Amino acid sequence: MATLLIVAPVFALIAAGYAAVLFRFVSESAHKGISEFAFSIAIPALLFRTIVVSEFPDVSPYRVWGAYYGALAITWIAALAISALLRKRREDSEDGVVFAIGSVYGNIVMLGIPLVLSALGVEAAGPMALILSVNTPLLWLCGILQMEFVSRKRAGSLLSIIWPVLADLARNPLMLAIGLGVIWRFTGLGLNPVVDRTIELLAQAGSPTALIALGINLFRFEVKGEKLSILVMCALKLAAMPAAAFVLARLLDLPPLAAGVIVLFAAMPTGANAYIFAVQYQRLVNPVSGAVALGTLLAAVTLPVVVWAAK
């Protein structure tokens, strides 16, 4: 019952966002404004305040990264191997990269942050911030570099390939909030009560608006195209990756709270960033779109089990 009380409201808000578009209470374009507020203001405020005021367990960042990104690497390699078996033409190596991205790039911001905080409390912010701080740059860089390697279309230097990604990340509100939160925490100054209350009000809006935005955003994703590819991506993302994360967290002897964050983040369904990557390279656009939609639907069934295990 306790697990249901954690998971059900999260998916109820996602469903509310989807229903709002379905019944034309809001337009599909509302997603842009709500998302911009959530990810440029509210969630950065949530991350900043949580990092500054929360008490964190003493845990090695290398063990956290090792468990989460070790599971991601295992799943990535498995996805590349499975994609090679599914491809009819050997020259479609670029599809394999997008297939791998769709199998590992979870929705850890829109869905992961609200669910982890709801399930594990603000004490989970430490391990959560460690993963968030490197997730986007690492996955985008790995995806771009591997895509450039298999396609061999670009003659520029390595710096010319990764510089645009690094420049975008330097302006990313989530990255800035995490960085500023860590710096301010080290000053030991704390937060003025008025400032703290103001940021807290913004932070309280973060999770609900992110989930509503996710529901609205799901309206444009469809389950169409290569059904087998969609099912395999969902299986890798929702089952294989969290299972690998669970094993690695145990092997690395992580404390229960950090292990719970890692397994929950690993169990998030495929996120919209994987779809953006597919669109950018015009590869497997429909299957990745289907993995986002079907994966989020299936997560309503799989995540209660993962939350129960993580707690």
UniProtKB/TrEMBL annotation:
<keyword id="KW-1003">Cell membrane</keyword>
<feature type="transmembrane region" description="Helical">
    <location>
        <begin position="128"/>
        <end position="149"/>
    </location>
</feature>
<keyword id="KW-0472">Membrane</keyword>
<feature type="transmembrane region" description="Helical">
    <location>
        <begin position="161"/>
        <end position="186"/>
    </location>
</feature>
<comment type="similarity">
    <text>Belongs to the auxin efflux carrier (TC 2.A.69) family.</text>
</comment>
<protein>
    <submittedName>
        <fullName>AEC family transporter</fullName>
    </submittedName>
</protein>
<feature type="transmembrane region" description="Helical">
    <location>
        <begin position="37"/>
        <end position="54"/>
    </location>
</feature>
<dbReference type="GO" id="GO:0005886">
    <property type="term" value="C:plasma membrane"/>
</dbReference>
<feature type="transmembrane region" description="Helical">
    <location>
        <begin position="290"/>
        <end position="310"/>
    </location>
</feature>
<feature type="transmembrane region" description="Helical">
    <location>
        <begin position="228"/>
        <end position="251"/>
    </location>
</feature>
<dbReference type="InterPro" id="IPR004776">
    <property type="entry name" value="Mem_transp_PIN-like"/>
</dbReference>
<dbReference type="Pfam" id="PF03547">
    <property type="entry name" value="Mem_trans"/>
</dbReference>
<feature type="transmembrane region" description="Helical">
    <location>
        <begin position="257"/>
        <end position="278"/>
    </location>
</feature>
<keyword id="KW-1133">Transmembrane helix</keyword>
<feature type="transmembrane region" description="Helical">
    <location>
        <begin position="66"/>
        <end position="86"/>
    </location>
</feature>
<dbReference type="GO" id="GO:0055085">
    <property type="term" value="P:transmembrane transport"/>
</dbReference>
<dbReference type="InterPro" id="IPR038770">
    <property type="entry name" value="Na+/solute_symporter_sf"/>
</dbReference>
<keyword id="KW-0812">Transmembrane</keyword>
<feature type="transmembrane region" description="Helical">
    <location>
        <begin position="98"/>
        <end position="122"/>
    </location>
</feature>
<feature type="transmembrane region" description="Helical">
    <location>
        <begin position="201"/>
        <end position="221"/>
    </location>
</feature>
<feature type="transmembrane region" description="Helical">
    <location>
        <begin position="6"/>
        <end position="25"/>
    </location>
</feature>
<keyword id="KW-0813">Transport</keyword>
